[in-house]
Amino acid sequence: xxxxxxxxxxxxxxxxxxxxxxxxxxxxxxxxxxxxxxxxxxxxxxxxxxxxxxxxxxxxxxxxxxxxxxxxxxxxxxxxxxxxxxxxxxxxxxxxxxxxxxxxxxxxxxxxxx
Amino acid sequence: xxxxxxxxxxxxxxxxxxxxxxxxxxxxxxxxxxxxxxxxxxxxxxxxxxxxxxxxxxxxxxxxxxxxxxxxxxxxxxxxxxxxxxxxxxxxxxxxxxxxxxxxxxxxxxxxxxx
Lengths: 114, 115
Fold this sequence. Notes:
The structure holds 2 protein chains of 2 kinds. By secondary structure, chain A is mainly β. Helices cover 0% and strands 53% of the residues of chain A. Chain A contains no helices and 11 strands. By secondary structure, chain B is mostly beta strands. Chain B is built from no helices and 11 strands. Chain B has strands spanning 4-7, 10-13, 19-25, 32-38, 44-51, 57-58, 67-73, 76-81, 90-97, 105-106, 110-114. The model of chain B has no long low-confidence stretch (mean pLDDT 94). Classes of the chains: A mainly beta, B mainly beta. At the A-B interface, strand 5 and strand 10 of A face strand 5, strand 9 and strand 10 of B.
């Protein structure tokens, strides 16, 4: 039972353009969502998070949007840079003592072309 | 930012032997630590959650007698893969969190190869 889904295995974007990565979830108990960037044989690097009480959170080039009714979130990267090329994972957790206990999506490979 | 150090980064062991992986929080107290496993081209799957001084809670399908987790201090958790077999070859990653916070910070991961 895949509770967090990233349906696009890969995304290719031109440098300077917007990258949009999507994520869907099924468990309505999730109330905290995160995006991570990961390279092979390394641990995930935290990018940005959002609480279920918000619908948008921005941090520099990264913006996460949450649509609770659709159980959908997206990560926007503007402008995209070649250094952004990596695997991006969406993750979700329930609140309280379950913070940090993450359910991950399958990942999306982002390639940003110069 | 908070730093989590995982050691070793890669290890090769013979089938039937045991291997220990360490996860340390360097600049904060890790009241809770999490262990994940990632098979090639797959997602990270939570194996177990451990709170300092308590027994670990294992996810469904994870053998607690095979994957021994110890979290004896607020800065160190260990995962021991006992009687390792080639199918245990994987990338193991820990994360750590302080009570009352929302973020968990990840270690660099350990590539285990059982031959």
